[in-house]
Amino acid sequence: MKPNIPTIKTTHPEMRIELLESAIKTMEQRCIELMKSNESLSVSNAQLSIQNDHLSVKLDQLQRQRSISSQSSMGTSKVRKSSVGSGDERINFNKVSNGNVCSKMLTVNAY
Fold it and tell me: In what ranges is there compositional bias, type Low complexity (predicted)?
């Protein structure tokens, strides 16, 4: 972005000095605006990094809670037994369910 500097086309030295002074003031104001915007950007970047740290801590806590809950649910699994069949062959179905995990075990016992 080019600064708006007026073109000097006058032959009077006093006018040239006034135009140069106004151009210098315009450039100084623009520099001050840029410095202020850079400061606000650095502040917002710092706030974003703090929020990212906070989110990563929360994510770590959630992952720890998930691993602890999955371990505790694996320890307290419920086993339901049902048997189907008659005579010499009996099939036992054991359904183990704990939280999100559900598995079936099939055992065949021949008598």
Answer: 64-73
Domain boundaries, the chain: 8-76, 77-111
Long-range CB pairs of 68-77 (<8 Å, 24+ gap) are 69/99, 70/99, 73/98, 73/99, 73/101, 74/98, 74/99, 74/101
**Alpha helices (H) along 1-111:** 13-75
Residue type, 88: D
Residue with tokens 């623009």: 30
The residue with tokens 């104001």 is: 29
Contact 111, 85 (CB under 8 A): no
Which residues make beta-bridge pairs with 67?
A: none
* pTM > 0.70: yes or no: no
For residues 92 and 81, is the Cβ–Cβ distance under 8 A?
yes
